[in-house]
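This section describes the prediction task in plain terms. A model, or a person checking by hand, is given the sequence of a single protein chain and must write out its three-dimensional structure as a string of tokens. No templates, partner chains or ligands are provided. The sample shown here is typical of the held-out split.
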Amino acid sequence: MHRGWKAAAMAVVLGAAGTASAHEFTCEKRIQVKGEGPTDEGPRVTRFPATLRFRYKVKNIHPKGESVANLVEDPLLEPHGFRFPFATPLAIGVGQEREGTFELKLSSPEACHAMAATDGRVDGHFDSVLRVKWDLGETQCGARFSCCEPFVDCEMACPEYDPDCSEGSGNNVAPGASRNAGFFKVHEQALGQCLALGRMDLGMAKVESLEQALGLLWASPGLDRHGGVRSEADARRFELAREALVTVCNERLFGMDAKRGHALDEALRTLRSSRNGDTERLVTELRRHNDAGLREPLPQGFDAGRATPAHAASLAVNPTEPGRP
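The expected answer:
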């Protein structure tokens, strides 16, 4: 009799513990480009700068009790500032749910592809997963966004500082086609066509091959070919050499307006001399001209080839001259 009473009490205790620890959740995650309508399969980001809005929903589906989540995380977004808007442990009552959002800005197609590669696959898609964990279980929900192919189906809004860029159909004269460093560093075929028209003497670098051109486009301006830190002046000259290479390719492949030509002449004179000159102004000016025609279609019949960022990066060889910064 006494032994039976103990067994019954133990059963009550175990039953209560089992009920107390019973939790169950579902989650939902969606991604939307701010200013555009929702899509079923995740958005394709084609216009930059863009703001992505991640929407989250966590729901308690336990039929009788409150559910408590000990961890709510989106690991691939945490380096970009993700914090779920509800502190854990997160307690949600029967039949109730919590919602939250997180916004992320992408400035350019290159930024989009760089982020897409952080999920472990260089495929132009970014796949991330929200994890909700509780004492005896876990649920996950994922979502994807895709990046446009740079300068094939991407659009860039005109920056405020660029007088040569025009949007809409106004009365401004549209600039001719041009492409920037981000385009040439991932389009090997286009860059190869540029180099087929002759070598380039860029002062601190003589570019004669595709590998050397890619090296100038992929290398860090702040580091020399041996990994040493460049001075600020030398880093600025490196940036000028990079923009000059891009401008030369724009001239060879797509033609050049007079203003861009004058800036290139001055940049090449500066690079080939021992004086730094006004490198900061020249970098800004060449970059502005190289960006001016991003929205213009490439000439009919010109085939830029596919964007191959991973392969292009693997070919890059820093072309800076021995004994030069």
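For orientation: Residues 1-20, 159-174 have pLDDT under 50 and may be disordered.
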